[in-house]
Amino acid sequence: MRKTKPKKRILLPDPKFNDVLVTRFVNDLMVDGKKTVAFKIFYDALDIVEEKMAKKEEKSALEIWKQALENITPQVEVKSRRVGGATFQVPTEINPARKRAISVKNMILYSRKRSGHSMAEKLSAEIMAAYKEEGAAFKKKEDTHRMAEANRAFAHFRF
For the Small ribosomal subunit protein uS7 domain, which residue ranges apply (predicted)? Predict the structure, then answer.
């Protein structure tokens, strides 16, 4: 790489929970720079999770959301690598920042694809599904792990 890596921007924590991860999630959720709308969607989704799950789980909605993110975070991924004219899917470990980014993006992507009235409802449904280790985002993680496991024989091509 010729240029130096850009410095990581420091994000301010969100106003309600004082958590930087929430701000990172809301930034990915945001469309067309409408951050207040994104915050409202996220907080409404957590309120729905709170009323549906938090009582029987005896956890706060934020803890349920964090556990759901953890449940859909992949540990390995496959990268294409050309060796002598053949392309191999090589399983590699993922660095923590990328793990977090992948899980956040998957949760938002599969929330948008869900059926429901408002984005808050869709997001809350995806959070609850991920917490219970089911749903599309969790399936995506499982597929990624299965792919890496199937191609474990090519791990010696790691770069």
Answer: 1-152
Q: How many CB atoms lie within 10 A of CB 65?
A: 27
Whole-model pTM above 0.85?
yes
For residue 79, the enclosing domain spans: 18-155
| 80: phi then psi, degrees, rounded to nearest 5 | -75, 135
Residue 1 lies in a domain: no
What DSSP character marks residue 61? H
Q: Provide the CATH number for the domain around residue 145.
A: 1.10.455.10
Q: Given CA atoms 142, 145, 149, 150 in this order, what sign does their dihedral have?
A: positive
User: Rounded CA gap, 143 and 109, in Å?
Assistant: 16
Rounded to an integer, the average pLDDT of 52-78 is 89
Domain count within the chain: 1
